[in-house]
Amino acid sequence: MESASIPSLALPVGVTLDRYIMHKQSSFPFATGELSQLLRDIALAGKIIHREVNRAGLIDLTGGMGIQNVQGESQQKLDVIANIRFKRALKNGGEACAIISEEEEDIIYTGNHHGKYIVAIDPLDGSSNIDVNVSIGTIFSIYRRVTPVGTLPTMVDCLQSGRKQVAAGYILYGSSTILVYSTGSGVNGFTYDNSLGEFILSHPDISSPKDGSIYSCNDGNWDMFDEPVKAYLTDCRRKQYTARYIGSLVGDFHRNLLKGGIYLYPPTAKSPQGKLRLLYEGFPLAFLAEQTGCVATDGVQPILDIEPTSLHQRTPLYIGAPVMVQALSGYLEAGQDLQILTGTVADL
């Protein structure tokens, strides 16, 4: 082998997640190492889920459990496994005093009463897609507890507004596995390298396009959408925008974040309060969206301004490129004005 080819074979592999966290620790709020460890614990559980997802078809992990979760949705085998994996990693890590999970009805106490953080998590979003090898993901957000350290966490710790998040992110298990997160000073993505067993920085300082031509919604719900939403979607079609909908929120959000687009899950006759969970989906993705220059609203106010009242509260969600969200908001506001003029608002 020629010596000239040696440098190309010895190129740096990149910055690992652990090294990045260590270098950035000084910029973390209240940086004393606990938040850094918490992010490592989440990354570790993500590596385990990556392994389980990749061999699901070989060890009979596909399909449903035959039961429903607290959301009234059919629970998949991988939902249960992911929930267990993340609970175990966060309990053993020692930094989380409590966990709230999309899969469980009540607060999960870790026994680490001296932990300073609360973790809200959707362990495996879009898990029904695993049977057909379509992207799925994990969504998480982290809050600093408000009750005294050393005491039992309470609902006050868990029902904080989205503005109180100190970190949020997601792990997308797709053609490659990528962890995207923010601590409030930009968003970075790390792709998992199977050969090294490490997440490597691959998407530094993500900035999303201000406009786009992709719209993502469940078109099968068309007949249940309000007229302003139908009008906006009709305009998207007239402009020959591209419709892209995976049925996995993480996958749809990630694509639109990088390429520019809007994700819509409006209220419907079946789900008048919306279908997506505020704490496990709305808040963390809105946190990331705002960090990259995007907008997230429920049609009335920014998602992050909503004050939560229950663990499994639902919300409509319109999230993505600001130009596209603002255009949709114009239709929604016009629809509200029309209701007032025609006297159809309930409180008139």
UniProtKB/TrEMBL annotation:
PROSITE patterns: FBPASE (PS00124). Its cofactor is Mg(2+). Its EC number is 3.1.3.11. Mg(2+) 2 binds at D122, D125, E281. Residues 16-204 form the Fructose-1-6-bisphosphatase class I N-terminal domain. PANTHER family: FRUCTOSE-1,6-BISPHOSPHATASE-RELATED, SEDOHEPTULOSE-1,7-BISPHOSPHATASE, CHLOROPLASTIC. Homotetramer. This is Fructose-1,6-bisphosphatase class 1.
